[in-house]
Amino acid sequence: MDTGPDRLTMRGIVKRFPGTVANDGAELSVRAGEVHCLLGENGAGKSTLVKILAGSQQPDEGEILIDGAPVALHSPQSGLAAGIAVIYQELDLVPDLTVAQNLLLGHAPAFGPFVRRAERERRARQALDRVGADFPVTATVRDLPIAAQQLTAIARALTSDARVIVMDEPSATLGENDLRKVFDVVRSLAAEGRSIIYISHRMDEIMEIGDRATVLRDGRTVGVFDVASTGPDTLVSAMIGEAREPAGSDQRPPVAGDPLLCVDRVRVPGLLDVSGIEVRPGEVVGLAGLGGAGRTTLLRALFGDVKATVEVRLDGRPLRAGSPASAVRAGLALVPESRKEQGLMLGLSVVRNAAVTALGRPPWLLPHRRGARRADPVLADLGVRFSSPHQPVGKLSGGNQQKVVLAKWIARGGVRVLLLDEPTRGLDVGAKADLYRQVRALADTGVAVLLASSELNELTANADGVWVLYEGRNVGFFDPRTTSETTIAHTVITGAMP
């Protein structure tokens, strides 16, 4: 890593929004050839700082320098011209265009007004090869799996002469093999002298890929750390400012009583064949498994959101929930993996989103004052950060959006079974702990919780029992009080019981 002059310097960055200060004198310095991690809780100011760097927002105060020279970034185009490429967590690809069209959008090779398609596809293929992607450049982005779309977004940054590349939670949708490819690309880009700003909430990634880390808290830079000589506990403490531990299942006695939810069998031909899962009132049962193991399909089938053969009993009686509406009437609630596509109405206010299921009306007909009475206490309990209850929910950070998805079910009441699909995706350590405390509080009222997560350490810390799904089947059940995480991980990877 180059330890010479800084490639990027952001000094005294201030950005104010109505009712809040997103950046309050934030500082960020990144060297050439460095992988620099940007850390902080949701609402700490990371997203705003990145948008300012990308040119999509302008700071109220402060300056930005590239290789020591001040730059004015008035638009995303000026950011790209300055050599800055941003790969956002919520991918900004054009779904109906091909991979090649996305990779060279805005700078495709042309002869006069005509695009040189063969040359565009050749350059796109080179970029995909750099990230180890083997899908065709002629594929439509919409038809690609999420992991392939993520690799497409990374490859797009390589088609420009970017000196600074920002990667916002690149691993959120990637499996282990794809993540290895991304890490290889990151290291090769740094070796070329490019600067990588890597944003992640996963400490194992930070410790593996990072050279230095800047921590933001409440819009301010609170520390810059050398990753090799800093333990993850130090970074977490800097992020949250206090010790906050998740609610651990090892502190709770086993849940007794008859099951509330009995999954006798759920079958989707070629994808899923699960049976024998039970969840008692007050119990949190985890679903572990690799990508594609069937966790999301199972939850969606239970919620009536995917065509499946479902044999399920609720409190001893057959559950006939062939649609989400009937599932809700029966007392089921789903927090989906994709909060933006399935969980929220991004253009509507925080309160309307949080109260829509409680009042049972179309959101545009929802009385704001009545909705606020139902939603405000729940939003406060969950610690949702927003500048105004009228603020569009799409303007919140990812973690706060996820809390609003949970809030709409809590505000409704009457939930008997809570289905959680990757509820902490994109959340920082503190927000994860807050969410799991709220989930545990719901369980303590008698709600049965079925929790799917790719974070095994979160399942062992927060679930009373863990089912492992492997290639569409549930292959083993473990008590995290008596079984090591290593043993469970072995079954997750191999599908074999110890």
TrEMBL record:
Name under which the protein is recorded: Sugar ABC transporter ATP-binding protein
Cited Pfam families: ABC_tran
Keywords: ATP-binding, Nucleotide-binding, Repeat, Transport
Molecular function via GO: ATP binding
PROSITE patterns for this protein: ABC_TRANSPORTER_1, ABC_TRANSPORTER_2
Keyword match Zinc-finger: no
SMART domains for this protein: AAA
Organism: Nocardiopsis mangrovi
Domain ABC transporter per the UniProt entry, residue ranges: 8-243, 255-496
